[in-house]
Design brief:
Two copies of one chain form a homodimer.
Chain A: E1 2-3, H1 14-22, E2 25-29, H2 30-35, E3 44-48, H3 53-65, E4 70-74, H4 84-93, E5 98-99, E6 109-110, H5 119-127, E7 128-129, E8 135-139, H6 147-159, E9 163-167, H7 177-186, E10 194-199, E11 207-212, E12 225-229, E13 235-237, E14 240-242, H8 247-250
Parallel strand pairs in A: 1-4, 2-3, 2-4, 5-6, 7-14, 8-9
Antiparallel strand pairs in A: 9-12, 10-11, 10-12, 13-14
Helix pairs in contact in A: 3-4
């Protein structure tokens, strides 16, 4: 289960690159397979379209059980709303014994998740530093999760004054959720709360917008968008959002380079 | 502001590597500078010890203002409890105008955050796939954040049934927080809730433990540990933790490879 990061090839870790290069079969969504062309040198390739996630994982497991070395690729981080969990679910539904490559126990399948730069880190980087303090990641896709659960999580995240990262804010079929999020959060949060909207971070056509909770729905978003809503301390600074952790309040005076804080990270 | 990922060199993205190689000055915590030795070919190096985060950022800003090309390095992702936010705070305290390298406006300093694999993604990868659904990241360090705020966030995260990722679970001076977290969460969550404890993920001496909320404090943790506490759906499967997203419930029958789900990721 190999993570490609947000914008191959500059954002894939060496271990993931090697895993793709050394695979006998590469399994993945069409768009990512196309991007991987430079790494494909004779590996068998199994491409699939959108909406075939279960089939894709089943194919990967079948191939691995047949003795092939398989790379199941995922954009961003395979373990954060990616393919890793579904692949493990498929293995468990078949009662397979699984373990890491270095396991000493008898298993049916060796598995490894190779991590990557998640979409939330890519989006945050383009916004400066909105995720410097506690945050909650919430997917707005209600195809697999009832909207009431999503609402409950949004309320809890607002109550806890978390920075909120929204995955899947909108799709062709889902266009009302982001407005509902705004209305729900406005009951608790300041309308001027800074919000960052990053689409296609580190890809062709990247867009970075800084706005406010009040104006959240005034900007284009799609399935490749990450929305980051600040906590009560987050501020806009030039083209950036910053969520302070409190170092400067506690220790430092601006321009006093000798200040010696006593901190952990 | 350059992210090194969890375990340099296999886990740093090419763009970050290039940023270090092309820097004129590399600024960072001693341990990470030591690790970077293979990339250092004549760059000036400014090392600092623990507890000097503010000074480190001020040094980096001073050097950049003096016209040097500076790489301020951070382990994991620089934007998640890393150095990026503090560096921006230091710039703001000095009223500097800042912008990305491609900005067209007049600025005092060009800045860029180069993302990396965050500690939470590294820890999750070693545990299988615990972060496949909504999660909250919370630091237990109460040096900069009042414990009441941390408690409020833990309560909110439990109420929202988030998977909970704990950063900084313990240090030499802070040894009671993890027990307090267990007691607090046990009021709401099942004692058998699966918990993963990963220390030094992808580094020498890595340790991966799967336990339960009830037994959370029975295992060694330190400042290099990430603790991941499941939501109500998370299950242990062999050596892994999986938080299902619901694909198999909704669409698939085990072993029915023809199932065509209609899903988004």
């Amino acid at each position: 289960m190999v993570s490609l990061g947000p914008g191959f090839p500059e954002y894939i870790i060496p271990q993931a690159r090697v895993a793709v290069e050394q695979a006998q079969v590469v399994v993945g969504y069409r768009t990512y397979i196309d991007l991987l062309a430079p790494l494909l040198r004779g590996q068998e390739v199994v491409v699939s379209g959108m909406k075939t996630e279960v089939k894709r994982c089943q194919d990967a497991v079948d191939l691995a059980l047949a003795g092939r070395r398989v790379a199941l690729v995922s954009s961003g981080d395979a373990g954060i709303y990616g393919m890793a969990g579904l692949a493990l679910e498929v293995c468990r539904a078949r009662a397979l014994r699984v373990g890491p490559p270095e396991t000493l126990e008898a298993v049916d399948l060796y598995l490894e998740v190779i991590p990557g730069v998640p979409a939330l880190a890519a989006g945050a980087a383009r916004l400066g530093a909105p995720l410097m303090h506690d945050f909650a990641a919430i997917s707005l896709s209600d195809l697999l999760t009832p909207w009431e659960v999503i609402e409950k999580r949004l309320q809890a995240a607002a109550q806890g004054d978390f920075v909120i990262v929204l995955y899947n804010p909108k799709s062709k079929k889902r266009d009302w959720q982001l407005g509902a999020v705004r209305d729900l959060l406005l009951r608790v949060k300041d309308p001027g709360t800074p919000v960052g909207i990053v689409t296609r971070a580190m890809r062709q056509g990247q867009s970075v917008i800084i706005t406010t909770l009040q104006d959240l729905v005034e900007h284009p978003v799609d399935m490749q968008t990450i929305v980051i809503i600040g906590n009560s301390q987050t501020y806009a600074y030039g083209p950036y959002l910053v969520t302070p952790r409190g170092y400067l309040d506690k220790y430092a005076v601006a321009g006093a380079p000798g200040a010696e804080p006593n901190t952990e990270t």
